[in-house]
Amino acid sequence: MLNYETVKYFGNEQHEYQRYDRSLKGYEQAAILSQKSLSVLNLGQALTIATGLVVLMYLAAEGVVNGAMSVGDFVVANTFLIQLYTPLNFLGFVYREMKQSFIDMEQMFEMLRQDDYLPEPEDGRTFTGLSKGIAFENVHFSYQPNRPILKDVSFHIKPGQKVAFVGASGAGKSTLFRLLFRFYDVTQGKITVDGVDIREFNTDSLRQGMGVVPQDTVLFNDTIQYNIRYGDPAATDDKIIESAKQAQVASFIEHLPEGYLTRVGERGLKLSGGEKQRVAIARTLLKDPDILILDEATSALDSETEQAIQGTLEEVSKGRTTLVIAHRLSTIVQCDQIFVLDQGKIVETGTHQQLLDKKMYYYRLWVRQQEKAQLEKQLKKATQAAKLVGSSQSRSDSDSESI
Ligand SMILES: Nc1ncnc2c1ncn2[C@@H]1O[C@H](COP(=O)(O)OP(=O)(O)OP(=O)(O)O)[C@@H](O)[C@H]1O
Ligand SMILES: [Mg+2]
User: Whole-angstrom Cα distance, residue 23 to residue 31?
Assistant: First the structure.
């Protein structure tokens, strides 16, 4: 249901109906089978009980006829049998319940095993602020055992620095940030914050100190105000408006009929990509973190809005350690350090100028982007010129008509 747009784009409604129908059929067959086996069980049970009852009653009746039992004994035998069989009738039900309980128990143990995945230290340190910096020391990482993603990554970031990570898609940039935020633990090596392994910190306090604008923004199906306030549930309305202004999204929100109380839809689908991204920036600014992590935070914006936000981001990143991933290199020229990642390894490090002088990977990337930007500029100029010519042409046409 969430992916309905893709279904429509490809006109695959029939395909989805059939898929849904197939799984419903599977369910239907399983339900029928379950009901059938239950009926067989109940029938078998009833038959056994009834046969037993008839045989015993017959024997008791014979005893009465022979004079070995009184009529009273007959009634007593009957009562005993009924008392014995009633609980036996429940046997099928109990059997089913036990089976279901075993399945539930298995699932519960599975869940408990999952919790062990990221062990939390007993008496973890509280993160209060960055004083010595962040370091990755020979970090290796893989999501699945047979596919390494990061290979021997080491770097150091001083407090207050602004650093950037660039590299091809799939190089492992977002993965670095996920590790720092401790969504996963490293496979080998360690990540330290102020010289202390992040596994020794209380995870909540560490995460409290970091603000992330992720690559794919997902919003809650609630109002814009709720979504921005998510950065700091105790924030006042004024503060929310202020961070919306900083994120260049305030004027857009104010022009909406319902303003800050506009609902954004499931996962935020009623907002455009750029609007969603700016709401995500606003909520991170509201969180006011010590370490700011921006994963292509402005990739969905046009260059003008991007420049405006870039100014704000530069402003808020002052005095804060900031880690940025950017595809548009022009946005990271000012960074203190730039790390170039390729296939999970850091292949180049330095400032923008140093990396250009090396004339290697970064240089090639830069030149390509500059060429593209140049072409776009020329195209824009040409389009404008064409428009001008077009309008003067039509004016002269209408002039000649009137003459
Ligand atoms: N949860 C996951 N499970 C398994 N593999 C994953 C997972 N997340 C990412 N990967 C793999 O890890 C590699 C690195 O992913 P990552 O998201 O870090 O790339 P990236 O450098 O941020 O790329 P992009 O510029 O496209 O965002 C990719 O090849 C991806 O397929
Ligand atoms: Mg990424």
Answer: 12
